[in-house]
Write a sequence for this structure.
């Protein structure tokens, strides 16, 4: 039934195919890319070339094929998006469900912390915390160098769990008064058992939705950071979607439109697709529409 | 016999669901006479509420309505929305189980009743508010002048139901349809509300259709009873006859399953209510009936007179002979 | 042999409301001093309207809600003295069936898993599948129902599943919290019969909480009538129904519509004025006095204690019916 409802959202179905194709392309990257990420196209002069046969989307300022760099870049961004989303969702679920179920002081504290973080402009917080965390030497072995992909994943995860926690807490609050929860308590189930066995499985819908939106949020945030020059620098010309979008800054003025258009289009396409999927997931799992019999 | 105010003939309602067409009402004929209280009794899935929601034009677009509903000489099936808006609240009103959902929480009670009055009669706001206070008094709300200035959440369940009744009779409709009006109320409050409905009926001459599953309520206040099962009326009888000489196996089954003094073991009706996506052929009660014969599955039985009642059981005559 | 002994049970809820700028702490006195005993194999009916506190009492008996004061003693053990683990062991002997068949089963778990859950939580070894089949058959369902999900069943069937789950641990006491109120009339009969049959077969005690007096009369040995958190009358079921001694009981019985037009229309009815007062501000003295046609000054000043009446029941009234 939920599957049927999902499938009736045509935009979402198209988006699923688009994302699947993208992911396959990107996963098979050494095969699908035509050049290495830092490799210059052999055809001097090779910089700022318009799209052509040996460089499908043109080249950048030092002659690297944009198409190949885009593939590698999207791979890095998707990795960042996926991992930080998964970590923040796991964290958010744990914290949100315990806060919702226990209530009382614990819940109050957690909610105020969440509110505190949500009160600051996200970007400012990111930039500040980036510098703060990056300066703490003893954390470096764990979370990586300030310019590494690992650092960015940790950064997004640590500041992304709040939204998920709120959603999960809301679900738990709604569910915990339901009689099947009381029934579990009546047979002596522990709090943790109830969270694990009843509350979380019944919150899968909103959690899935939160997951998709976290991915988009992370990808866009990464792009924003990179735009300002704080993106992941993994060395040896490695790139991310955000860095490519950031490079668009200079390209717009000088008329090298392909350097701006293709990365931005890709970003928009990914963000839209995931948003459509998230919307459809939310409608498909809406409990109001789930009176089956 | 009093004049007919509402005449329903061949009413059929089918819902278009993702799982296929659902026949909620499959051919209902009913007359409602001025000043009388008619009961429509049935369990969930019998189609009793849907029939009257259809008459009021309150069903969603996924519902297909066939047949005829004539109120005061006007055909309501297929009427324009504008027409229905003028009928609702003026010629025919409906009250529901949950009074809270009929009341707007952010407006005062007096204002809401006044709004009802001014929707159908030309009155100044002042006059409407004054009339609202009168109506509150008629339904038995103490200190009506003060209470008209209060909000729904300041009223208890029983009081809210009285307010809803006041709104429903504000324009002296010919027919009041009460859909399970007391089911959500405490037993002691239930008695009060039934008394209000009866009082309103005699004072305004309104015909009342009482939709309920509670046979006790019916025994108290109604003159005629229609028993519905699986979208059709299976028995129609006077109040005494339906309890003392039921002519349809379903009615008998229903009466036998009620807890009564001196009965050791309750007798439930075996089986389950039918799936209206795929109703059984012929008589819908057949799978659960102890007296079913082959002929019962052949065609939908029609209501036929037997004594002073009407029964949709082809074996009614034989069954009345042996108790 | 007394299975359950309840003494002076009190439950207060604190609600924070804000009237304008001021924060007010209001106390809802849901249950104020309820005492009764329950013998083995006996059914006690607990009746009352909304606000009577009957549901809260049921929850307190299982410590699903913590009582504010008073004691609940089950099989000689004071529940309040037990910690979480000791209470968990005792929970094997006391179970509950809920009112709403649609909300009492986890929609994501199969029926078999829900019925087996008590066994899993309690860490009981052995073949759960077999036990689940036994239980399903005991309540009139079949073995292949175990693989299905709650939404595939009707209300009456779900209620039977709830009963099967309650029986999983072989309890000695089952609290039935309005177990048939949400069911169609013709289905209610089957479920009520089931309760009777199970009791004959397995010998457990019931506390049957309901507002439907006719059903309670059919199944209960003794009945307690509650109003605004207190027991107004308690005694043998037949006696309470035939010779009620408390005015509220009388009014309640009078208000219940009987499916018999001859009797129903011939009765003189006692009409109570007004609505049930709020449990936040119960009337002083006797709580029923604001709606009672016999109320006197004494009723406002002094709360009547439960006293034995000639016909055998206890009631709390200064001017009992005779």
């Amino acid at each position: 039934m939920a599957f049927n409802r999902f499938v009736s959202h045509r935009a979402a179905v198209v988006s699923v195919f688009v994302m699947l194709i993208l992911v396959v392309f990107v996963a098979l990257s050494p095969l699908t890319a035509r050049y290495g990420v830092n490799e210059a196209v052999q055809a001097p002069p090779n910089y700022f070339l318009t799209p052509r046969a040996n460089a499908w989307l043109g080249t950048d300022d030092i002659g690297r094929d944009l198409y190949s760099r885009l593939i590698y870049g999207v791979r890095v961004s998707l990795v960042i998006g996926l991992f930080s989303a998964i970590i923040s969702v796991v964290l958010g679920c744990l914290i949100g469900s315990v806060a919702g179920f226990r209530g009382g002081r614990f819940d109050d504290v957690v909610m105020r912390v969440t509110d505190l973080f949500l009160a600051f402009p996200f970007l400012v917080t990111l930039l500040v915390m980036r510098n703060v965390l990056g300066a703490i030497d003893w954390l470096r072995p764990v979370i990586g160098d300030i310019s590494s992909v690992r650092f960015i994943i940790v950064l997004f995860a640590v500041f992304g769990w709040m939204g998920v926690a709120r959603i999960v807490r809301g679900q738990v609050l709604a569910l915990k008064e339901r009689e099947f929860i009381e029934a579990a308590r009546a047979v002596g189930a522990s709090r943790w058992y109830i969270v694990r066995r009843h509350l979380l499985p019944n919150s899968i819908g909103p959690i899935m939705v939160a997951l998709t939106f976290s991915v988009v949020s992370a990808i866009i945030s990464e792009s924003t950071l990179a735009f300002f020059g704080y993106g992941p620098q993994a060395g040896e010309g490695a790139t991310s979607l955000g860095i490519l979008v950031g490079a668009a800054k200079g390209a717009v003025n000088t008329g090298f439109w392909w350097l701006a258009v293709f990365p931005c289009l890709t970003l928009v396409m990914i963000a839209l697709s995931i948003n459509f999927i998230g919307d459809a997931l939310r409608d498909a799992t809406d409990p109001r529409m789930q009176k089956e019999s | 016999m009093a004049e007919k105010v509402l005449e329903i003939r061949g009413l059929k309602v089918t819902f278009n669901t993702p799982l296929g067409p659902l026949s909620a009402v499959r051919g209902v004929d009913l007359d409602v006479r001025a000043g009388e209280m008619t009961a429509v009794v049935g369990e969930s899935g019998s189609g009793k509420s849907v029939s009257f929601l259809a008459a009021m034009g309150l069903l969603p677009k996924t519902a297909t309505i066939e047949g005829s509903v004539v109120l005061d000489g006007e055909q309501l099936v297929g009427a324009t929305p504008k027409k229905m808006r003028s009928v609702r609240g003026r010629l025919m009103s409906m009250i529901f189980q949950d009074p809270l959902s009929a009341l707007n929480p952010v407006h005062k009670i007096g204002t809401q009743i006044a709004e009802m009055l001014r929707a159908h009669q030309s009155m100044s706001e002042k006059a409407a508010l004054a009339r609202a206070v009168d109506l509150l008094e008629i339904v038995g709300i103490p200190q009506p002048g003060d209470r008209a200035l209060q909000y729904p959440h300041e009223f208890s369940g029983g009081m809210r139901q009285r307010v809803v009744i006041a709104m429903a009779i504000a324009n002296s409709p010919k027919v009041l349809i009460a859909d399970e009006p007391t089911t959500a109320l405490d037993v002691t409050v239930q008695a009060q509300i039934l008394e209000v409905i009866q009082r309103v009926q005699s004072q305004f001459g309104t015909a009342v259709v009482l939709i309920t599953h509670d046979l006790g309520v019916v025994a108290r206040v109604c003159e005629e009873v229609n028993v519905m099962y699986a979208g059709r009326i299976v028995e129609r009888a006077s109040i005494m006859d339906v309890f003392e000489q039921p002519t349809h196996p379903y009615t008998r089954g229903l009466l036998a399953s009620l807890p009564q003094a001196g009965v050791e073991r309750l007798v439930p009706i075996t089986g389950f209510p039918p799936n209206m996506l795929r109703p059984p052929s012929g008589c819908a009660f057949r799978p659960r009936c102890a007296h079913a014969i082959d002929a019962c599955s052949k065609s939908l039985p029609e209501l036929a007179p037997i004594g002073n009642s009407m029964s949709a059981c082809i074996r009614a005559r034989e069954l009345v002979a042996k108790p | 042999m007394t299975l359950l002994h309840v003494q002076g049970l009190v439950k207060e809820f604190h609600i924070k409301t804000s009237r304008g700028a001021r924060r007010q702490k209001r106390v809802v006195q849901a249950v104020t001093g309820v005492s009764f005993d329950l013998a083995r194999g006996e059914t006690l009916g607990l009746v009352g309207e909304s606000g009577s506190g009957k549901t809260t009492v049921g929850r307190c008996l299982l410590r699903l809600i913590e009582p504010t004061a008073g004691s609940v003693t089950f099989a000689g053990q004071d529940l309040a003295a037990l910690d979480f683990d000791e209470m968990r062991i005792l929970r094997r002997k006391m179970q509950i069936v809920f009112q709403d068949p649609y909300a009492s089963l986890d929609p994501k778990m199969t029926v078999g898993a829900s019925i087996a859950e008590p066994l899993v939580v309690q860490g009981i070894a052995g073949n759960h599948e077999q036990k689940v089949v036994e239980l399903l058959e005991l309540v009139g369902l079949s073995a292949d129902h175990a693989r299905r999900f709650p939404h595939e069943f009707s209300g009456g069937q779900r209620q039977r599943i709830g009963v099967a789950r309650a029986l999983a641990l072989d309890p000695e006491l089952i609290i039935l919290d309005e177990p048939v109120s949400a069911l169609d009339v013709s289905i209610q009969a089957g479920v009520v019969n089931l309760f009777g049959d199970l009791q004959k077969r397995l010998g457990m005690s019931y506390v049957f909480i309901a507002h439907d007096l006719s059903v309670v009369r059919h199944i209960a040995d003794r009945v307690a009538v509650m109003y605004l958190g207190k027991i107004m009358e308690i005694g043998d079921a037949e006696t309470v129904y035939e010779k009620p001694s408390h005015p509220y009981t009388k009014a309640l019985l009078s208000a219940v519509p009987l499916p018999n037009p001859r009797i129903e229309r011939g009765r003189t009815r006692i009409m109570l004025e007004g609505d049930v007062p709020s449990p936040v501000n119960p009337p002083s003295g006797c709580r029923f006095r604001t709606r009672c046609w016999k109320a006197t000054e004494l009723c406002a000043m002094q709360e009547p204690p439960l006293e034995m009446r000639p016909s055998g029941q206890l009631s709390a009234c200064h001017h009992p019916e005779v």
Remarks:
- The two ends of chain A are 12 Å apart (CA to CA).
- Residues 289-293 of chain A have pLDDT under 50 and may be disordered.
- Chain A touches chain B at residues 4 (CB under 8 Å).
- The CA atoms of residues 248 and 254 of chain A lie 10 Å apart.
